Each structure stands twice: as structure tokens, then as C-alpha cells.
Amino acid sequence: MKIGIGILTTLKRGKAQSVTRLWLNRLPDSCRYNFLLGSDSMKEDKEFLHLPVEEAYENLPLKTHFFCRYYCENFDFDYLFKCDDTTWVNADKFVSAPIGDYCGCPVKTFNWLHHYGKCKDMKSNRTLPSKYKGHYCNGGCGYFLSHKAALIVGDKKNEQYFEQELYEDKAVGDLLRDNKIYPVWLTGMKDVGSCNGSEIVSYNVEIPNQIESLENDYKSAPKFENFIISGMARSGTTLLQHSLNAHPKITCWGELLNENTDTRMRAYKEMPAKLGEEPILRNGKGSNYLSRFFNAEKKQNDLIGAKVLESHAERSDGWTIIKSENVRVLFCVRHPLASFISKEQSMEDQVWNGPSKPKKMKIEFNLNKWEQYEIRWYKMCDRMPKNSFKVYYHDLVFNYKPTISQVFRFLDMPGIDLPKPKLTKQRQWNVLDRVTNPDVVSNILIASKPHPLPLI
């Protein structure tokens, strides 16, 4: 993938540029970069790109505009990456990182006075930025622009727009929003200085001892070869499992780590194309059994995983390995009410167990069961490791390809274009339409705090 990189800097920041070159020199030949400087004309002088703007904080939006214009007019590229000279990049993950037309790290809080005291022009110091239109990508941490997005930002007709803006990252995000291009958040991009080898980018780095710490983090970062899919029942774990199994370098078993022998055998028989040694299912217990399972499969596949649901006993092999933090964890998350009703519906329809029966369109909502389930749901969230990757059900169902791309990136696997698996379990419905007593569910929704997850 061809990526052009623009680093906002000034002639006075030679030390920061030296730090930035540490990661720039590790990038493959498909990447080219320029330090962006203010000047009286547009010209390229080795690694420096001089842009026709005065060197001042309030001109950062114009710098970004001219950077995009210059690259669009002179180079062939797939993406542009704009960052600051205090940005630190993990060169091993950088090239495979971008997805969509506009992606990066979200700005969590909008500070109207961020520019105060930084502008060269006193009038600009007293000027408030334009109205907040919505989320955008953090400019300091850096963001990717596809060729399509870069053409919009670098369009000559938008030069006056950037001249009037104060915040470069907000100006880019607002302009792209007006053109129906919205930000995509990349897992692994951080707007703080501390990071480890799992991150793509870290921001606000220039202290020498911090650089040494980052270097050591990247070198010593554990190379996980296994992963776990976890979550409550009916939260998208099966859809995610089938999606990952479509990748030629990934084997994702079902509940092969369950303490129940019948469940393990059922999971084993579901995957005849990627079988290992059957005795491995019967011999040994605890982490020793789990270790032999992973080691036996490792010879045949690049990455191996299995499902560990909330219903598995806490002493099971799966939860033992999750607690050890020696694997990456994909945590499937769905609104608890939706997953609870879906689970009860499935049990009623006998989707999982027993012979097929005529499906009941509605079930009676059991308040006592729900209260116990809700406690388990929150307990499950607390049990997840802090570095687990959350896969939201609504994203997996309605925004499939970008979500799967982020999952592949989290697993350090090359992304491929995969069609969404067709599973009979995945249904789109309104929870109130699935119960015979919707008033009870409505009362729960009214009495509880607003939930951040959509009720699907």
C-alpha cells in the first residue's frame, strides 16, 4: 500500500524531527514522507516540503490543505497520513492500518480555547473556532485520508475555507462530513504518550527517556499466537467465529475449551476441515490440557482461537487462559436486554437443544430471570481484560466489513475481503415485538439509565 506522510513541524524543532526519523526510517519503500514547513512558495527540498503559508499556529489548516494538494498533483498514493512531529508510529503495523476514507483517533473532548496564546496573530488568539459539527480525528495523533478524501481536502476551491479555520483536524473533519465522509475509529491509535507494542500510533512523545521506553515496549511486546472469542450467549460470537474461519490463516474453534466433554466433542466435529488430534480432547485438564491443544494446532495454522462464553464455569480451561492474559480476547458486546430476549427465544424455539419444534413468535418476559441475567452481564464486563477488543453486535451486523477489518488488525493478520456469513441465528427484530408482555420491558427501559448500546 502506498502511503504519503506529512509531518507538521517548524525549523526550530530539529530535535523532534530527529525522534520522528527513528520510526520513519523503518517504514517500507511504499511510504514516502515530508516535514511540512511554512514558506513563501511551494517546493520540495529533500525531506522538507515548503508550503506557501506563513509559519504560524493559525495556518496549520492551510498547511494541511497544501500538503494534500501537492501530493494529489504529484504522486500516486492509496492514503495520506497527516501527523505532528510528536507522533510515534509502530512501523510494523502502520501500512496495514487504514480503513475507509477517513480514520484515526477520536477527539474525546472539544476545547474551544486550545489555540489561545499559540497564535502569532493576536486577533486569532481572541477568535473562537467555528461551530462544532460532530466527531473528528485527532490531528496530533494523526489520521489517514484515502485518495478520495485527500482530493476533497486539497481541492483549490477549499483554500479559502481552510484559511478561515483555526483547528486543522476539526477543519478536515467538518469538510469531509459535509461531503458525507465520516470518521472511522482505529483501535490502537492513542492520544497519550504511554503505549505498548500493540498500538499503531501514540501521540505527544518527545522526551528522550520516554522514547527509550517506547523502543523497549515495541521490541519486547508479546507476539500472541492465540485468541479467545468471549461474550454472553447471543451476542454475535458465532457470527464472529464463522467470519474468522473464512480467513485462510485462522482457525477458530467453537466451545472446545468447555469443561463439558459433550460440548467439546460437538465443537470438534463441527470443523472437519481443520481437525487436529482427537485424543487431545480427552486427555488432561486445566491449563496443561489447554497448552497441548494450542501447541498441537500451531503447526498447521498461523492463528488459533476458540469460544469461551460467560456460561462456562470460571474454573474452565478457557477462563483460566483469559485470566493469564497470554492470549488476545475478542469481547462480543450486545445490549443485555436484546441478548437476553434472544437467548430465551432460542431456548423456547429449541434452536440449540433437542428436536426442532414450531417456532413461537413471542415469549413471556420473565422479570426474575432478567434480573439474574443482568447481574451476570455486568459481571462478565468486569471479568474482561483491559486490553480486550470489543466487537459490538450492531457493528458486526450492520457495518460488517469495517468491523471485521479492525478485528483482523487487532489479531495482526492481513485483512482480506470476506462476504458476511449467512447464519440463521442472526435476526433483526424489535425486542418489544418478541414478548407477550412488552409493558414490563418498557418499564425496565424507563426505570433504568440510558444504555450506550442500541437495543437490537
What does this entry look like structurally?
- This protein folds into 2 domains: 3-220, Spore Coat Polysaccharide Biosynthesis Protein SpsA, Chain A, CATH 3.90.550; 226-447, P-loop containing nucleotide triphosphate hydrolases (Rossmann fold).
- 37% of the residues lie in helices and 15% in strands.
- It has 17 helices and 16 strands.
- The strands form 3 sheets. Strands 3-4-2-1-5-8-7-9 form an 8-stranded mixed beta sheet.
- Helix 1 (14-24) links the parallel strand 1 and strand 2.
- Helix 2 crosses helix 5 and helix 2 crosses helix 7 (168-178).
CATH class of the largest domain: Alpha Beta
| Shape verdict | elongated
Nearest-angstrom radius of gyration?
25 Å
Strand content: 5-15%
User: How many domains would you count in the coordinates?
Assistant: 2
**Helical stretch tally:** 17
Question: What is the correct CATH architecture of the largest domain?
Answer: 3-Layer(aba) Sandwich
Please tally the β strands and state the result.
16
User: Strand order within the widest sheet?
Assistant: 3-4-2-1-5-8-7-9
Mean pLDDT: 77
The parts where pLDDT drops under 50 for at least 5 residues are 193-197, 272-290, 351-358
The helix fraction, in percent, is: 25-40%
CATH superfamily grouping of the largest domain: P-loop containing nucleotide triphosphate hydrolases
Say what the CATH topology of the largest domain is: Rossmann fold
Structural class from helices and strands? Answer: alpha/beta
**Head-to-tail CA distance between termini:** 37 Å
Biggest sheet architecture: 8 strands, mixed
